[in-house]
Amino acid sequence: MKVKKAVIPAAGLGTRLLPATKALPKEMLPIIDKPTIQYIIEEATDAGIEDIIIVTGKDKKAIEDHFDSSFLLEQTLKNKGKQDELNQIMNISQMAHIHYIRQSEPKGLGHAIWCARKFIGNEPFAVLLGDILVESNKSCLQEMMGSYSKYRSSIIGVTRVDTADVHRYGIVDIENKQGDMYKIKNLVEKPNKEDAPSNLAIFGRYILTPKIFDLLEVQKPGIGNEIQLTDALSALLHHEDVWAQLYSGKNYDIGEKIGYLKTIIEFALQREDLKHDLKPFIKNLSL
Ligand code: UTP
Fold first, then answer.
1. Within this chain, do residues 277 and 262 fall inside the same structural domain, yes or no?
2. Mean pLDDT within 234-243
3. Residue 107 CA: which ligand 1 atom is closest?
4. Are residues 129 and 108 in the same domain?
5. Most buried among 23, 36, 81, 152, by the most CB within 10 A?
6. How far, in Å, from the CA of 106 to the mean position of ligand 1?
7. C-beta of 14 in contact with ligand 1 (< 6 A)
């Protein structure tokens, strides 16, 4: 069965970016002129995803409004002859079939995904974390969807991180390797560097089989008293093979201050309309 649906969890409290995230979900924070979550929806639709469910929390309005049509704004842009802006705005509301489900309490990533179970049904599906961006010229999700059609198992995107940083991620323990694919033996959430079985870190892109919902249903809270997806994936290993796919492109964590800042700078340096002014500005700063 082809992967056609995706879940974007966007119901976390975003405490690392307070006070900016007090009334605005971090997934709506702009990278220059586009909210983070719009890049993620573009990534999903470019990879061939047809239906997306966004798991929202207390501030869902901003996300829903962004992807809805906006009659007043469209009319005003039309009247002012601002055709480019009008096209951009109209494209947003036609990007994909976007659905919403509310996570009543932020009980963890695993719980957020479980909230989407009725929408997903008995199909494999993609998960794209709402605060992680990946390089756009190398489609991570598309590669993972290709691997799913070959392996017919859950696939977790991983990247190599410095040993000093393993405590920030879910880390996989692997057995055999086939190209950029590693069969997973075990997974640990946020291990100490002494206990980490590798430096292959889960960064926020997954293809999952629907079996995960049965396991999330009974999953006990783990680290941070949250229902952790990593713990349910460990349980999944008792039922099915799970593979890690090494992604060699860059990923950007906008959920922390320094990550957010670096993302904006890197994205701006790639833009024709900005890089020529920004480069000399940065050079002068570092003198
Ligand atoms: P994070 O752990 O990075 O988000 O979750 P957080 O809890 O909002 O972060 P801090 O530590 O308070 O700053 C990764 C993704 O999972 C979503 C988040 O919105 C983010 O996109 N998430 C997390 C949920 O949807 N629900 C949750 O209960 C937790």
1. yes
2. 97
3. 28
4. yes
5. 36
6. 8
7. yes
pTM of the entire predicted model: 0.95
Cα–Cα distance measured from residue 77 to residue 70, given in angstroms and rounded to the nearest whole number: 11
Q: Is the CB of 225 under 6 A from ligand 1?
A: no
Burial 97-130 (b: 16+ CB within 10 A, else e): ebeebebeebbbbbbbbbbbbebbeeebbbbbbb
Q: Is 55 in the pocket of ligand 1 (CB under 6 A)?
A: yes
Looking at the fold, whether 126 and 156 belong to one and the same domain comes out as yes
Q: Give residue-wise pLDDT tens across range 111-146.
A: 999 999 999 999 999 999 999 999 877 689 999 999
Check whether residue 179 and residue 273 sit in a common domain: no
| Residue numbers of the domain that contains 189 | 5-255
Question: Which protein residue has the closest C-alpha to ligand 1 atom 22?
Answer: 12
Please provide the average confidence, as pLDDT, over all residues in the chain: 94
243 and 137 in a single domain? The answer is yes
- Both 136 and 146 in one domain: the answer is yes
Pair of tokens at residue 153: 């198992």
Identify the bridge partners of residue 41 per DSSP, sorted by sequence position. Answer: none
Q: Which helix (H) or strand (E) holds 185?
A: strand 181-189
CATH number at residue 207: 3.90.550.10
Ligand 1, atom nearest to 131 Cα: 21
72-84 pLDDT per residue, tens: 999 999 999 999 9
Number of domains in the chain: 2
Q: Which residue has the tokens 């198992």?
A: 153
Distance 108 CA to ligand 1 centre (A): 7
Same structural domain for residues 169 and 279?
Answer: no
Distance from residue 13's CA to the centre of ligand 1 (Å): 6
